[in-house]
């Protein structure tokens, strides 16, 4: 066994919807290099991925499970108070993840937000499935999760990259994997002639291009998240940061490109490791080691 096989790290995984599937490829590359993950802090879709991985401890099997998953069936479109409930995700977790945090093979922490009290909660003990569903409950897409008398939603509202949380779980070097949707430099917001009169304005509002509206809302969300994460990274810098070079067209909902996203993550991590991160016997990750861009 090589010296790299003795390397143990903690993982901080950002949210990012379908882009989080690149993190599966990263896990495969880490295992191939003999690197052991001894704790994970993950948000949003990464929380789902991590719950399964922390249960089975096998990245290749994780990849197989997710490639066999029909992501469209994970949406429960019959739910109220939002576009989707969580029954599909609960079923996936029931099939492949432990029932409690204590049963996991790898310690895991999952942030979620009490949407009524504006409070960030971090779950690492007790029932697993409800906190994971809550961490994935993006506002406007999923309904809140009622857990422990609270209405919980996406941890990314406050903390979409839990680089601070992972330090509470492990003293090992921390690798942070960032797959967040980048801020778009050009939304292509075409200017149009202003309608006149009340009816004209109402008609224009109802007929407006919905994709443009979604782009604006997501851009606003991403700008806010980026600023929050800059502060968190400055206060709790990981020992290494990996940003898989996902194509811009792979967005948060691009689950049909799961295999491609996984391959990008695998190549990014493999290339970083090949640059000699563990070239010297007993070498550990150095603070702020750049693994990718």
Describe the protein in words:
It is a single chain. The protein has 293 residues and is of the alpha/beta class. It contains 8 helices and 9 strands. Helix 1 runs parallel beside helix 8 and helix 2 (45-56) crosses helix 3. The longest helix has 26 residues, at 210-235. It is globular, with a radius of gyration of 20 Å.
Salient structural properties:
alpha/beta, 9-stranded mixed β-sheet
What's the gist of this structure?
With 293 residues, the chain is of the alpha/beta class.
C-alpha termini separation: 30 Å
Mean pLDDT rating: 83
Instruction: List SSEs in N-to-C order.
Output: EHEHHHEEHEEEHHEHE
Q: Given the structure, what is the number of helices?
A: 8
The profile of the biggest β sheet is: 9 strands, mixed
Helix content: 25-40%
What is the radius of gyration?
Answer: 20 Å
Query: Which structural class fits the helix and strand makeup?
Result: alpha/beta
Summarize the topology.
Elements: E1 8-13, H1 22-32, E2 36-42, H2 45-56, H3 59-67, H4 87-96, E3 108-114, E4 119-123, H5 129-135, E5 145-147, E6 150-154, E7 174-177, H6 198-206, H7 210-235, E8 240-242, H8 258-274, E9 289-290
């Amino acid at each position: 066994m090589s010296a790299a096989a003795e390397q143990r790290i903690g993982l901080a995984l950002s949210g990012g919807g379908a882009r989080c599937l690149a993190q599966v490829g990263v896990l495969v590359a880490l295992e191939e290099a003999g690197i052991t993950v001894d704790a994970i802090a993950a948000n949003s879709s990464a929380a789902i991925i991590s719950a399964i991985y922390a249960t089975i401890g096998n990245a290749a099997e994780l990849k197989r499970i997710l490639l066999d998953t029909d992501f469209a069936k994970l949406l429960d479109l019959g739910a109220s108070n939002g576009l989707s409930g969580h029954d599909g995700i609960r079923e996936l977790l029931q099939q492949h993840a432990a029932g409690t945090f204590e049963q996991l093979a790898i310690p895991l922490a999952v942030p979620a937000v009490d949407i009524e009290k504006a409070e960030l909660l971090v779950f690492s003990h007790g029932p697993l499935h409800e906190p994971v569903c809550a961490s994935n409950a993006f506002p406007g897409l999923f309904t809140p999760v009622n857990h422990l008398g609270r209405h919980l939603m996406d941890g990314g509202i406050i903390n979409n990259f839990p680089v601070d949380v992972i330090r509470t779980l492990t003293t090992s070097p921390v690798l942070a994997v960032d797959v967040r949707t980048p801020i778009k430099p050009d939304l292509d917001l075409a200017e149009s002639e202003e309608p006149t009169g009340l009816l004209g304005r109402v008609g224009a509002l109802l007929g407006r291009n919905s994709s443009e509206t979604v782009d604006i809302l997501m851009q606003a969300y991403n700008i806010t998240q980026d600023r929050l994460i800059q502060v968190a990274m400055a206060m709790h810098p990981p020992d290494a940061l990996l940003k898989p070079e996902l194509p811009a067209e792979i967005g948060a909902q691009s689950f049909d490109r799961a295999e491609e996203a996984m391959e990008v993550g695998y190549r990014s991590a493999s290339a970083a490791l090949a640059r000699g991160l563990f070239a010297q016997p007993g070498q550990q990750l150095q603070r702020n080691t750049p693994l990718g861009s």
